[in-house]
Amino acid sequence: MAKIFFFLDTRNKKSDTFPLVQRVSHQRKRKDIKTPYIVSPNLWNEKGRKFKSSFPNSVRANAFLTDRMKAADDVLIECESFLKSMSVEQLASLIEDKIEEYANKKIGNKVRHKINNITRLYEYGKIVIKRYREAKRFGMADAIEDAIRMVVTFNGGEDPLITEIDETFLENLEAYYLNKGNSLNGLGVRLRSIRRVFNLVIKDANTELKQEHYPFGKNGYSIKQQRTKKRAVGLDVIEKIQQLDYPEGSSLWHHKNYFLFNFYMRGMNFMDMAYLKVGAIKKGRLQYKRRKTKRGNNVREFDILIPNEIKKILRFYTSEKSKGDLVFPILQDVIHTESEERIHEVYSSRLRNHNRRLKTISKELELDTNLTTYVARHTFATAGIRKGVSKAQVGDMLGHTNYYTTEAYFADFENAVLDEAADKIFS
Length: 427
Fold this sequence. Notes:
- There is one protein chain.
- The strands form 3 sheets. Strands 1-2-3 form a 3-stranded antiparallel beta sheet.
- It is 51% helix and 10% strand.
- Helix 1 (58-78) crosses helix 2, helix 9 (251-264) packs across helix 12 (340-364) and helix 13 (373-386) runs antiparallel to helix 14.
- The chain is globular, with a radius of gyration of 25 Å.
- The protein has 3 domains: 1-113, no CATH class; 116-226; 235-426, Intergrase catalytic core (hpI Integrase, Chain A).
- By secondary structure, the chain is mostly helical.
- Belongs to the 'phage' integrase family.
- Residues 121-214 form the Phage integrase SAM-like domain.
- Keywords: DNA recombination, DNA-binding.
């Protein structure tokens, strides 16, 4: 028997608010249908599966849940005679179609075109997200989805009209976001995704949005950015990491190797490592294209001499493998069996796990700075500058496609050099 209910997805233990999903359970499998709500547990009645009265616009929000459950119940009745032969994915898909059908009926197709200001952020965002997923740009799709959920949460869980998102709305959103202890740069990342949605919706002739509704830019809200301190460790720390003696094949042994490979291969991106194939190794060199820029005009191609420090690591991981095999086991269990979207989900999970393992190594070495993939990259860059390599050369090795990205890497380094020079003057 199929079961359908609402619940908070509390898997992200670091958050204090959680997505509300409509779970479809059938044939001992489950499929979650997303809703636009992000909810604090103290505003959710788990037993009654509804919002508490203290939740903003709780009457409207609970009516939304009622409509969703009615759509699901109608699908179960319509499919009762052949429900046993359906998969959970098929059932969930029919429920989503029914939800959309009811939403259209509620407004009415004829009336819809006569009403001004009907385009809502979450509803239109689903179109954009779907488009990016179909183009296999999963990182962009995830970023836009995350940004939209932030805005909906700020708006009391209600999907806002895009025309309501003006400069004042964004200023209030900024205050809300920063008051929760979040960073200005984190807000900037999300608002750039919202800006992307605005650019697309204004170009869409099927919406009521015009350029005058654009809240960003010269005469609107300016997305702020705060210089982040580039974290790097000394080369003495790299030596200590090399000397760590973990059992071969253990989890920490693998993650130690990934970090060292990341550093010695010119701060190589972890995604490039995860997808790196044995065939990229040719006559003592590594030749590959950076995945991050593969869809842009400036596709970065690398041809790197493999340093002696990691030849042993590569020999271990490439032993008895063919050219088409992945060098590292990061994605080897899913690369040939799962969809690209699922592979991206697994990659994101394993990147987080890699940084958690590096944090364990940091504690063992009693470091002030937690090791991460970015630390490996910044350490390589800083070491290069300290040894007299030009900024342009270091930027090229890192795969930067413009001067300003490279400059941002070294701003804090130059401040440190000036501080040291001042100390010499005063001493």
